[in-house]
Amino acid sequence: MIHKATEWSIQSIEIPDIWASKSGKMIILGDAAHAVVPYMALGAAMAVEDACALAASLRHIQNPTELSIAMKKWVTVRKHRTKMVHEASFGHGLMLHIDEAMKHDIDGSNITESPNQWSNPIVTQWAYGYNSEVKILQNTLEY
User: Fold this and answer.
1) Any idea where the domains of the chain sit in the sequence?
2) How many other C-beta atoms lie within 10 A of the C-beta of residue 68?
3) ∠114-130-16 over CA atoms, to 5°?
4) How far is the C-alpha of 13 from the C-alpha of 112, rounded, in Å?
5) The model's pTM
6) Which one, of 42, 130, 49, 32, lies nearest residue 88 by Cα?
7) pLDDT digits (tens, 9 = 90+) for 15-66
């Protein structure tokens, strides 16, 4: 029943250096801060992680003067994570079309590391076992 479909290319952005104003009263998050190609299936999850980490950062401030410090902490934690996902997603997109990278996935080998990020247990743990609230709490700064 569909007579016409519109195609658009897959896009990502270079992750900007600045995500928050100096005051911390204005921030960017989600695709505005880190749109990624879809090859790790983490695009929407990254925005949810942003929100969770933001809530965790804000929960620990005692007064409005601590807002800029909380935002610096949030940016530091989130920027590191999003850069990792950004690079991995792009790299995985390149790997999807290489049969050699996939051979151990189908030959019954015990996989401990793989160029195919979907079957690499190291990548699986850091990409899909991530907890943004815990990361904020582990990176405590004095307010």
Assistant:
1) 31-138
2) 16
3) 90
4) 32
5) 0.69
6) 42
7) 999 999 988 889 999 999 999 999 999 999 999 999 999 999 999 899 989 9
